[in-house]
Predict the structure.
Amino acid sequence: MPGLLSLLVFAFAAPLAPAVPAPTMAELDHLFDGFDATLVLYEQTSDQTWVYNPDKIQIGTLPCSTFKIPNTLIGLESGMLKNATTVLKRNAAKYPEQDWWPKSWRVDQANLKDAFRASMVWYYCTLADRVSNVVIADHLKRWKYPVPKDLTPGHYFWIEGNYSVSPVDQVAFLRRFYNDELGLKPETTATMKDIMVLEEGEGYRFSGKTGLCRLPDNTKVGWLIGFVEHDKGLYFYAMRLEADAYDKIMQHRVPLIRRLFKNMNLFS
């Protein structure tokens, strides 16, 4: 059971901190039964960390569309994006419609908020072309986010190749972002937090970004990363699922995280 050791190691990291809702070993083992899952969960108020599948939390894979978070921040900071309503047009010759595209991508133009929430690949490839991989890499280095080795123009390193980001990297970056440690303009932070919201309820706000792509060995990898602001604590999370088919990942990644927080009595 991959969750057992991690909880024993981390659950009592801050014994004097106020009690906060926390997952149990049994809950994590039951939640991820049948999945090749890796999870890092950090609660800021109590400074506690829980992990599932500890052998893989520092192993990187492609970040897939979770990279739309730093990509969006770079676009806003560089001025290529003004706000959540910034429209980019699709170059149909460079990014023709594909059979596998969802309906939401089959548009001639889109604004930032819609593109982020629908995870439009063509929008963010267009943005990366305008910003350049060299500029992107410079921001990542300053933000202590993994930097790609291949900066070839037109190479979308976050969805193809050998670039790698681990669950530990993801949570560390989200914490720096949320706590204003990246040196961002206030309006950049406000826009990013707004478009990341997945759900709001009484006493909580659930924010995140999904990701889905194929690794060089043909393994399918899916992510859900983000944070939950709650009256009972502030939680940062990064969950990665690996499978041999996309469907299993797509159907379960958001429900799994929702179930995790519901089991912790944070969601209704």
